[in-house]
Write a structure and sequence with these properties.
The complex is a heterotrimer of chains A (127), B (536) and C (332).
Chain A: H1 4-18, H2 20-24, H3 39-44, H4 51-72, E1 76-78, E2 84-86, H5 89-96, H6 100-110, H7 117-120
Antiparallel strand pairs in A: 1-2
Chain B: H1 5-8, H2 38-44, H3 65-79, H4 81-89, H5 101-106, H6 113-128, H7 130-135, H8 146-156, H9 164-168, H10 175-188, H11 194-206, H12 214-232, E1 247-250, H13 254-257, H14 261-275, E2 279-281, H15 297-314, E3 318-321, H16 326-339, E4 365-367, H17 368-377, E5 393-395, H18 399-403, H19 409-418, H20 449-455, H21 457-470, E6 474-477, H22 480-493, E7 498-501, H23 502-509
Parallel strand pairs in B: 1-2, 1-3, 3-4, 5-6, 6-7
Chain C: H1 3-24, H2 26-57, H3 88-101, H4 103-106, E1 109-114, E2 117-122, H5 125-143, H6 154-163, H7 175-193, H8 195-200, H9 203-226, H10 230-241, H11 254-268, H12 276-279, H13 310-323
Antiparallel strand pairs in C: 1-2
Classes of the chains: A mainly alpha (127), B mainly alpha (536), C mainly alpha (332).
């Protein structure tokens, strides 16, 4: 008695599970999304922080803004350059970055990041 | 025993300073079982017969003993998936540690089941795994030396193969399996113990472990019948080696040999007489137990072969087996595979109740507790449980029937039907979590009495609990080793508690046809009230 | 300090440092980002199957379940179908309980001698710690599929949402990672704090724990502190998964520490005690029904042995048997 048949079936299931990514992606794999900067943003020239920093820290920045606005009533952000910005996602960020679908969603979706910003905020262009 | 119980129970759990791999086994007097005699091994045709003692420095091993062990190990890895898997998958989580009665009673770390297994695993890693070969000690591997083989001998005979650890192991690693393989390997180079090998040789020669010859077996049983007649007035004439009987009855020879097992044997005889069972005893298949189990699978098969062989010769329909522990491990888990198929037998059917025992449809052998429980359920026995009223009884589940079979309710049902005062021991010490008597797997020998008493401590301590709390004075069981091992254990740890077999209790309560008024029980002790009739 | 602990810890630190140095050198990124992961995957899958088939090669000569409940016998006696199964279905139930809930470990007790009594206490921590460890590891593993699947299946998104249900911090803390680290830490602490475990633990017991803790730690460090470019990470992993590997330009070298340690774990897995994951399925004391007496089990190597037959027995004892009035086959 050795149950070889059952063991082979079990091993096959295991192999199928472990190699799941290889056959799941076949034919459907998409390249990493390219970041598309909207013309409005290009025109503005600079963001509130340098590009690299924005890429890594935009969530912390927005989180800080939220606390500042909601809890302290402070709505103005002063950038290093001395320029002042309104701390607002819909009326600030999205004023320049008018292409939410290309600028925000593509990467978030690709990396399966689900920010809860949009639970409350709306994209003004979508109204 | 020189050590007092209150001293013995003070067990240190402190770990030694030295690594376990560098701690040699204690093989001073009293710490080992006597080895098998040269002539016993010669009779059985086993390797390396010689006279030696574990206390000697030189064990007179064959010159190429390391090679023999290595090859034997390899052979068993190829034959048993259990061994292979159990060698590889232990994570040393330690869940088994304080489940072993020998560890609880001794505090010796090598009695923790996983460390007992590591004794073999360390050699396995060295001999059969790449990591062990490359990394040596850091991978938990070590080379086989005389110290290691002495350690094996010491600790593989400090395991009763009770399987309690395997209940708790998350992977079901069964130390019994590892001990059995280890003992087989030891046997290959002539390291065996007398208390196992003598019964094995006897069993081959005379049909039973105790070496009872046919005429003596008959005399013993007839002697029981005389006692039964004196107590009950009923004359019984059991048959021996009778062809054409419906049932062959096989029980451990220990029941024929010593108290209190003898009373259990009388119980069987009275029960069968009462219901008019057409059965026979065999002087040839006169052993239910099987010390081959403690030696090697080959020896187990050879000793077990007699049951079917005799059943076929006599032309019986099926076999009923008596109260025994490891016998039922063999019958339930090995017999049919080793010596079946028993196509010449029929599926057991109780001639009294008509119950067909489908659970034994292939092996064609049923446990007497199954048989009796069925009789009582169908109201076929006239019972007067008040005859056992002077007893406060608790039930000891024997390791093998509990953990290799699961016969838990049948004996309890019988017990509750034949006595009125029954108290269970604490939940962690009964049923599948039952504790060994400390003397199983061939370790019921005098020279290691301290080890046995230590190993039996958890069992005894649970008995003490119900003894103190409910006044329990009788420990009932259905195992011949128990009936031999528990009385000294009780005398030491819980004086005042006696040991009794299930069917002795049944027979005491059984109201037989045509019996005289009983004044004593099977032990010729006055029944309560009987001597004081005039008082009432 | 225990040499096994020190060695294991040093090994993990050295491996991590190696990966960081290698990952920082652009020429070696291909080795750490592409070659080693592929080798690790092949060795894991191949090694796992090799080990299982090696076990499978040995037969199961005897049916030896450890019975943990009432057997199936008379119809009026309640049968413990899961603890002492008598059929394939029951065995599946028992195995499912064992694999998904660690049934046997749940029984764990702690025995202690107190005065003249041995007391037994239910000891749930090992069970709880192990369960937390294994399930959080599973959750972490499944969550990481977001790096290897495109588009990301809804089920994985759902798991992520559940894992971050409490919305603590930003990026939202995934509880599974924290629990994994804590549970591994507990299993380590338990090993060190229990004298009998400290006495018996091997380097092979500490090393995987340190390795897994380092993996969890490096992962959390990347997510919460370094905040590596996640799109670049996915570019790398998707390259691996679609067999068109690339090293993205802005990949953080620290990723290679995490990735390399995972590779080490994968390679180590099939050759270590971690194979208990596969072994449990093949454990004969758990995966067999206790129906020996009803259904014959076949041993493929059942040997033919000579035993003392009745004939030999009668030849030895014939005279005595006749004298005692016992029936014999042959009178002389």
């Amino acid at each position: 008695m050795s149950d070889k048949g059952k063991i082979v079936v079990g091993v096959a299931i295991f192999a199928a599970l472990v190699s799941f990514p290889f056959w799941y992606n076949t034919g459907t794999a998409k390249p990493a999304p390219e970041l598309i900067i909207a013309p409005e943003a290009k025109a503005a020239g600079a963001c509130v922080l340098p590009k690299d920093q924005m890429a890594k820290e935009h969530m912390q920045l927005l989180d800080g803004w939220r606390n500042s606005v909601v809890r302290e009533g402070q709505r103005v952000y002063v950038a290093e350059s001395g320029k002042q910005y309104a701390m607002s996602l819909s009326n600030g960020c999205l004023e320049c970055h008018t292409n939410k679908a290309d600028f925000c969603d593509k990467c978030h979706e690709y990396a399966s990041v689900n920010p809860y910003c949009w639970d409350c905020h709306v994209n003004p262009k979508e109204k | 025993m020189d050590i007092k119980p209150e001293e013995m129970i003070k067990i240190s759990n402190a770990m030694p300073k030295k690594s376990w791999m560098e701690t040699p086994p204690d093989l001073s007097d009293g710490k080992f079982c006597y080895p098998a005699k040269a002539k016993t091994l010669e009779y059985l045709g086993l390797p390396n017969p010689r006279d030696w003692s574990p206390a000697d420095e030189d064990w007179k091993l064959p010159e190429n003993w390391q090679q023999i062990i290595h090859e034997g190990f390899k052979e068993r890895l190829d034959k048993y998936r259990s061994l292979k898997v159990f060698m590889d998958v232990c994570v040393r989580c330690g869940a088994c540690a304080d489940k072993c009665h020998f560890y609880l009673g001794s505090g010796d770390p090598k009695n923790m089941p996983f460390l007992r297994a590591e004794l073999l695993r360390s050699i396995y890693r060295n001999d059969f795994t790449l990591a062990g070969k490359l990394l040596g000690k850091f991978a938990g591997a070590r080379k086989m030396t005389t110290t290691v083989i002495k350690e094996w001998f010491s600790y593989l005979y400090q395991c009763t193969e009770c399987r309690r650890c395997s209940v708790f192991c998350p992977y079901g690693i069964d130390t019994a399996e590892i001990t059995m393989m280890g003992r087989e390997l030891l046997n290959l180079i002539g390291l065996n113990i007398n208390w196992i090998k003598d019964p094995v040789a006897n069993c081959s020669k005379t049909g039973n472990h105790l070496g009872i010859q046919p005429q003596n077996f008959k005399e013993i049983v007839e002697f029981f019948c005389e006692d039964i007649e004196e107590i009950t007035g009923v004359k019984i004439n059991p048959s021996f080696n009778r062809k054409g009987a419906e049932v062959l009855f096989v029980t451990p020879s220990g029941d024929a040999f010593a108290d209190p097992g003898t009373y259990t044997f009388m119980g069987y005889l009275m029960l069968f007489e009462h219901i008019g069972l057409d059965y026979t005893l065999s002087t040839y298949a006169s052993e239910g137990g099987n010390f081959g189990l403690f030696t090697s699978s080959d020896m187990m098969k050879k000793l077990n072969a007699k049951m079917y062989h005799e059943a076929e010769r006599l032309g019986v329909k099926y076999i009923i087996g008596g109260e025994c522990g490891h016998m039922w491990r063999v019958v339930n888990q090995y017999m049919d595979t080793m010596n079946g198929p028993a196509n010449f037998l029929e599926v057991p059917k109780s001639p009294i109740t008509g119950t067909v025992f489908e659970n034994a449809a292939s092996t064609k052998m049923i446990h007497i507790a199954e048989f009796t429980a069925d009789l009582i359920k169908h109201n076929k026995l006239k019972l007067d449980p008040s005859r056992n009223d002077h007893l406060k009884v608790t039930w000891h589940d024997s390791c093998n029937p509990a953990r290799a079979m699961g016969i838990l309710e049948e004996p309890r049902y019988v017990l509750k039907s034949v006595c009125n005062n029954f108290h269970e021991m604490p939940a962690n010490t009964i049923r599948e979590e039952t504790f060994c008597c400390g003397s199983g797997a061939g370790l019921n020998t005098e020279e290691i009495m301290e080890q046995r008493l230590r190993g039996g401590l958890p069992r005894a301590n649970a008995v003490k609990y119900v003894h103190d709390k409910y006044g329990v004075n009788m420990l009932a069981c259905m195992c011949a080793i128990d009936r031999a091992a528990l009385p000294p254990l009780m005398d030491y740890w819980v004086p005042g508690v006696e040991v009794i077999g299930l069917h002795e209790l049944v027979a005491n309560a059984l109201v037989m046809d045509g019996e005289i008024e009983r004044t004593t029980n099977l032990r010729f002790e006055d029944l309560p009230g009987a001597e004081g009739d005039s008082d009432e | 300090m225990n040499v096994n602990i020190v060695l294991s810890l040093v090994a993990v630190v050295v491996l991590g440092a190696l990966a960081f140095l290698g990952g920082s050198a652009p020429v070696l990124q291909g080795v750490f980002g592409i070659m080693i992961p592929y080798i690790a995957f092949v060795m894991f899958l191949g090694g796992f199957i090799w080990r299982i088939m090696k076990w499978a090669k040995s037969p199961v000569p005897f049916r030896i379940p450890t019975t943990c409940g009432q057997q199936k016998s008379l119809p009026w006696i309640k049968h413990a179908k899961l603890e002492n199964p008598s059929s394939g279905l029951g065995v599946m139930g028992r195995m499912a309980l064992e694999i998904f809930t660690f049934r046997s470990l749940f029984r764990n007790t702690k025995a202690e001698i107190k005065g003249d009594r041995i007391s037994y206490e239910w000891e749930i921590w090992l069970w709880l710690g192990s369960l937390a460890f294994h399930y959080s590891f599973l959750a972490v593993l499944v969550r990481h599929m977001r790096f290897f699947l495109e588009p990301v299946p809804a089920a994985i998104k759902f798991l992520e949402a559940a894992d971050g249900f409490f919305q603590i911090g930003l990026p939202i803390v995934m509880l599974s990672g924290v629990i994994l680290f804590a549970a591994a830490g507990f299993l380590f602490a338990r090993r060190v704090a229990t004298p009998r475990l400290r006495y018996t633990s091997l380097a092979a017991d500490y090393f995987p724990l340190f390795l897994i803790m380092a993996i969890a730690l490096s992962g959390m460090f990347m997510r919460y502190f370094l905040r590596v470019d996640i799109v670049a990470v996915k570019e790398l992993t998707m390259g691996l998964a679609t067999l068109s590997p690339t090293i993205p330009a802005n990949i953080d070298p620290f990723l290679f520490v995490h990735l390399f340690l995972v590779c080490v774990l994968f390679v180590y897995f099939p050759f270590s005690k971690l194979m208990h994951a596969g072994g449990i399925f093949l454990s004969p004391t758990r995966n067999m029904a206790n129906n020996n007496r009803a259904k014959r089990h076949i041993n493929p190597w059942n040997p033919d042995l000579t035993f003392v037959t009745y004939e030999k027995y009668e030849n030895t004892f014939r005279e005595k048997m006749i004298e005692a009035g016992l029936p014999v086959e042959k009178e002389s």
